[in-house]
């Protein structure tokens, strides 16, 4: 896998109405947006135009996933499970 650098520019977390069972925690919808750069990052000299291949330029991404509570988690510090995950380049 190539190296990558992610810069998160915005995120939002919303509870999913009606998903809580009894007094348990609700499921969560999480949205993340930002930029990702794959491969090495070059640092050109000041005042020069960077010459980067197209593949190493930053790309905008959007990611949405749903977390659902685990009824009896083996590790209480990790009470959620990823139910769905959608990653998209914009």
How does the SSE layout of this entry go?
Blueprint: E1 4-15, E2 28-38, E3 59-69, E4 80-89
Antiparallel strand pairs: 1-2, 2-3, 3-4
Key words describing this protein structure:
90 residues; mainly beta; four-stranded antiparallel beta sheet; elongated
How would you portray this structure in words?
The chain contains no helices and 4 strands. By secondary structure, the protein is mostly beta strands. The chain has a 4-stranded antiparallel beta sheet, with no helix packed on it. The model has no long low-confidence stretch (mean pLDDT 85).
Q: Could you estimate the helical fraction of the residues in percent?
A: under 10%
> What is the overall number of helices?
0
Give the C-alpha Rg: 19 Å
* Head-to-tail CA distance between termini: 21 Å
Let me know the largest β-sheet. Answer: 4 strands, antiparallel
Any low-confidence stretches, pLDDT <50, length ≥5?
none
Structural class: mainly beta
SSE succession? EEEE
Overall strand count: 4
Tell me the strand order in the biggest sheet: 1-2-3-4
Principal-axes geometry comes out as: elongated
Residues in β-strands, percent: over 45%
Look at the structure and give the mean pLDDT: 85
